[in-house]
Amino acid sequence: MAEQAxxxxxxxxxxxxxxxxxxxxxxxxxxxxDEAAESVGISRKLAAFxxxxxxxxxLLSAAYGRPGEPRxxxxxxxxxxxxxxxxxxxxxxxxxxxxxGILLEGVRAQAxxxxxxxxxxxxxxxxxxxxxxxxxxRARPGRLGAERALTCAARVLDRHGFEPVRVTPTLLRLRxxxxxxxxxRDPELVCAISHAFLAGFLDGLDAPAAExxxxxxxxxxxxELRGA
Length: 228
Hints:
The protein contains nine helices and seven strands, in the order H-H-E-H-H-E-E-H-H-H-E-E-H-H-E-E. The protein has helices at residues 2-12, 15-27, 33-40, 44-56, 96-108, 116-139, 146-159, 182-185, 187-204, and strands at residues 31-32, 60-64, 78-82, 164-168, 171-174, 210-214, 223-227. The strands form two sheets. Strands 4-5-7-6 form a four-stranded antiparallel sheet, covered by helices on one side.
């Protein structure tokens, strides 16, 4: 997804493409090449070039003929519509949707007598276990000692914006908090969610030789992974 996001940003850095894409998004119906060209004042041939770039990165889809219209004599005109692709770019990486999903799940599944915090931590651990189990099913790593578990964890957590760095063979630090700046608003809660999520991830990965430990550091994730 990060590669696609970078490709989308590169394509939309061109002013003509961005204006054309905005026009198609607001049109409310499929747009032909001629209409797209007219919207930004360029030739149909040049519009086709820019439209193909927008299709290639997944921002637009292309088809022949508008749905519901009678088929014209000869070849139907090519039309374009937005795909609904949602692309967000953040440097450093952020995972606000992951945090929001954990909190929503906690609210929906809060048990009688359970506090909101307890429900959120349970949801975080569950989401982490799902991620760890999915990685284990994908990679089929067999029995994991501490070093191999941390190697596997680093690969997965890098995709989720934690920016892992291997300090020693049995110590993995996470240079980035993907939940920042929300973590700064309530560090006690959000850091506890991070810890529960990462502990759940190791559990789902079936890596008892590695553990998630609270390790608050300024500007970094408040958890590190160590060999047990």
